[in-house]
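hey so u asked for the seq, here:
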Amino acid sequence: MEKNVKDIEGRHLNLIEAEFVNVRQSTVRSVEGGTIELQQVGAVSIDGERIDVTQGASIILKGDNLNLNQSMAILSAGTNNNLNFSFTPISVSDNTNIDKSATGVVIANNIKSSNSTSILTIAKNIEGNVTTLLDWKSALTLSAIAGGLLAFLGLVNRKI
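ran it, structure tokens below
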């Protein structure tokens, strides 16, 4: 990886790779680097050690320290995930801080939450206020019902 700084604004790029990346108002297919700062950027894949996204959207976000502020990421996987006024359907990390954000499935060892919502939360320790639609018992029951329904429909379909 190059040991330089990439500062980009208002462009459409396929790949950005540098130690320090700062991108504003652009679209990028893939970003790789050490420290990545994105403002109003749409990206498919972001991979770095420290990632800060403000008012951006991405599909896959992977790194050690992830900070999403008023942003969206389909899958965010990291050691420390910080979500502030953001949305992510799937978040996997060791430590997750969620502040006034919405998540689909959160899997973490430790979760600190403030006025946030989730469909399913799986964690060792949860601290704060998180509204969860399903706990582990509800998720297991829902999975069993869905599996039974699919098996029944398979039997009915075979007889027809």
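The mean pLDDT is 90. The beta strands are 5-9, 12-54, 57-69, 72-84, 87-99, 102-134.
lmk if thats what u needed
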